Amino acid sequence: MNIRKIYTTWYDKQRVKSVKSFIRHVSGKNILDVGSGIGIFNNVFREAGFINIFAVDLDEDSLKYNDAEKIIHNLEKNLPFPDNFFDLCVASEIIEHLDNRVNFIKEIYRVLKPGKYLFLTTPNRDSLIAKFDKLIGRFTVNGWWNGHNYQHKYVYGFNEIIELIKKNGFKIVRVGSFYLFYGLPILTNTSLGMCTWILAKKKVY
Fold it and tell me: 26-51 pLDDT, tens per residue?
């Protein structure tokens, strides 16, 4: 049974769609998926030509279903990889669960090759859905999101997460959001979607 075909949430489907939309612009063979879980992006990675997929997560149960190269690791700590090793890092819906967020971005920068890419997604505090949820009292910058407790440590605003990426050496290539509002699961270049997406590039010195 392919567990990756079982995920059914609209949010996961949009995450896969967003990665698929931008990965075709990136070439290379080594890819790092941090907070990979069961590996919902693996088929997309392979279709794009990536040969070596490294899946990093602390959740051993999720990694059991992941058919990539699995590394059990606490992302609050430095990544267990050499400098300038990866062509692409995907960090989807993970930074909001960490305390050591600045070091997390610095570590991704370190392990990427010069001129290569980070693709990051994270819930957007400035989204229409978040604004609506604030009005009805079911949103906080940590913990609760869209009426559920997802154990978020911190939810970034749209410009706030962009500035964090830039301050740690990356050049922003493209940025936007997806899932504009309930019933509108679309990619958008505005700051109003439920999830911010960022394609950023490590500088070449």
Answer: 889 999 999 999 999 999 999 999 99
Check residue 66 and give left, alpha or beta (phi > 0: left; psi -120 to 50: alpha). Answer: beta
Return the closest-CA partner of residue 178 out of 161, 196, 200. Answer: 196
Q: Are 151 and 97 in contact (CB under 8 A)?
A: yes
Identify the residue whose tokens are 């819906």: 93
Q: Residues 6 or more apart from 90 whose CB is under 8 A from it? A: 19, 31, 32, 33, 34, 41, 119, 120
pTM: 0.88
Q: How far apart are CA 20 and CA 29, in angstroms?
A: 16
- Tokens in use for 175? 């940025």
Backbone Cα Rg of the chain: 16
Query: Per-residue pLDDT tens for 78-136?
Result: 999 999 999 999 999 999 999 999 999 999 999 999 999 999 999 998 888 788 777 77
